[in-house]
Amino acid sequence: MKIKLLSALALLALFGAVPAIAGESSCIDCHGNADIMKTLVPPPVASSGEGEG
Amino acid sequence: MGYVVDKETIETDPHFEYGCSFCHEGDADGVTKAEAHKGMVKRPSDNLDTCGVCHEGIVATYKLSLHYTTAGFKNGVSPRFSQEEKTVFDETVFEQSCRSCHASCGDCHVQSPVVSGVNTGLMDGHKFVRKDESKSCALCHGGRVYPEFTGDYGGRPDVHYRNGMSCLDCHSAEQMHGDGVAYDGRRDVENKPSCLECHEKSLSATQEAEEAHAIHEEAVSCSACHTATGYRQCSSCHLGEGATSSPAIVLGDNPRKPGQLTTLRLIPTVRTTFEKAGIRQDNFDALPNYWDSIPHNIQKRTDRTRDCNTCHGESLYFLEESKLPKDGSTKNLELIR
């Protein structure tokens, strides 16, 4: 029983903490923020050449 | 916006449990974009085994499915080639071009597929979308069947669409994910959609309709009568100079089921299609320029269901020699009634 409990606690410590890490990763700093993404990936500039409209 | 991830999804969806880099690799601790993206995998599900870690069963059958193998492209055209040409085609054209159209898991469930360089980004903030045909099927099948289905090419939308049905109501998820058999083409698929699955022959609305169905049963396909209006013939975009670019209903003998009158679609392969790859198509005339095709603009009542004379008197939509593409396959003549 003690072994099972320790295993469960170990698993919780290992995997339970992962979502928090995922949420705090630098990926989400940018990809979770539309304003930052707009500055990092500006929309393409439409050409005003022939064919427009 | 293209690659903005929905934070709520990240917190609740188990797909994100192990962090972005579990699938995308890269460096989750990177401070700059360049650092974070170093070694990043843009499309993790291009390697199906990424999804197979959890979805082992689906990945095992999907690896053999036509959306992944694209075997239909190869087997549909290869009878036109000599043995030597088949080798060249497989190594160059097929592997380097046709195969690039295979669908990964993510193309249907995460990000709309990129078609002709047009990238519409994530379907819904990186949610793993169970189904959204308008953002998945519609992009790859947007040249012909999807706009026919929704009425975007003019005319009334397909009766099934008007009644709230979409692609997966007939083309089930099981069919999309494959059944573990590596089929040569979609017509060989055992559980492919069939009108008769829902429309039992004995349930015709009127006696007149029941008689018409009984008389035409084996000799005429459902679509030959129930296709409402002209559908896209591939000449519209692909046949090049001199092509007639107009939708049309074309009725002729089914090349895959001789003796059955059905709707035919002009296909884009011409004698010069693979010239740049050094393939002359030595056996070009082994196949016609038309395949049997089921347009997705079905209606209950059409000019053919209303009046026998449309076919039996006027032969209104029947393929004629004068309508055949110039320098087409000699096999086309066999499709004329």
From TrEMBL, chain A:
This is Uncharacterized protein. It comes from bioreactor metagenome. The lineage of its organism: unclassified sequences, metagenomes, ecological metagenomes.
Automatic annotation (TrEMBL), chain B:
It comes from uncultured Spirochaetota bacterium. GO terms for molecular function: metal ion binding. GO terms for cellular component: cell envelope. This is Tetrahaem cytochrome domain-containing protein. Coiled coil: none annotated. Residues 159-238 form the Tetrahaem cytochrome domain. InterPro entries: Multihaem_cyt_sf, Multiheme_Cytochr_ET, Tetrahaem_cytochrome. It is found in: Cell envelope. It comes from the Bacteria. Keywords: Electron transport, Heme, Iron, Metal-binding, Signal, Transport. Its cofactor is heme c. Its main location: other. Transmembrane segments: none annotated.
